[in-house]
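Hey,

The postdoc asked me to send both predictions to you directly instead of through the lab channel. I've kept everything plain text so nothing gets mangled by the mail client. Protein one:
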Amino acid sequence: MSSALVKITTKTQVNGGVAPPQVKARCLTPEQAGDLGKTFGPVMTMTNSTCERTEYDATGRRLKWHMQCKGQLDMDVAGDFNFDTPSHYTATVVTKAWMAGMLMNDVTMELEGEHVGDCQQ
């Protein structure tokens, strides 16, 4: 089975400002498509911070997770993915970061992924 070519459109809002949508292509192997938690879950490593997954729910066509990091930079990251069809998903990822108790970043990303074909080997 070949890898799937997925077109991902990302709309980002950073600290209240809206960035132009970005469109990227990503190849997903059958293994990546079969392990949604690993492929779309949070990355648990940060320099000088300790991260812990505080919520993780992968049921049916939904993946929802929440991660909190404490240390040099405190972060709160939450993702909510809805795989509404085998070839389409929508998601929201919200990231907030604080340094010395001050909110430094408040980012909301709205993602839409759509299978558009097979990757060229």
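Protein two:
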Amino acid sequence: MSRSSERYGRASFEAGPSLRQILAFGLYQALVAVLTVGTAFATRHPAGALSILVTLLWALPSVLLGLGGPTLADVNNHLPYGAGDHFMRRGAEAPYPPVAAALIVAARAATAHLVGLYVPRRRDA
């Protein structure tokens, strides 16, 4: 561990880790944007899309982690927020590597986007 990360906790101000964190954050935000667009297309209502996204990205992880237990923590690790957190932060406590975490978030985003493409075609046909 570098001297700067020892003094300041988890933060690292070295070029390599900082660039990796910036790129990981940008990729995570892009995947959340894809998830958001898919959800918005599927619901066709701003309040419905916002309710689903707030529940999926903030409320459900808070409840699962607040209740505690290894099973609920494992469920949270496979939601977009939990997987994104493991992807953006490197740590020994992560249950899977960062690439697997990115693939989990990408799979959730792709699923939402495909549902968002399918539902309006089916509904408006």
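Summary for protein two, as requested: The two ends are 58 Å apart (CA to CA).

Thanks,
C.
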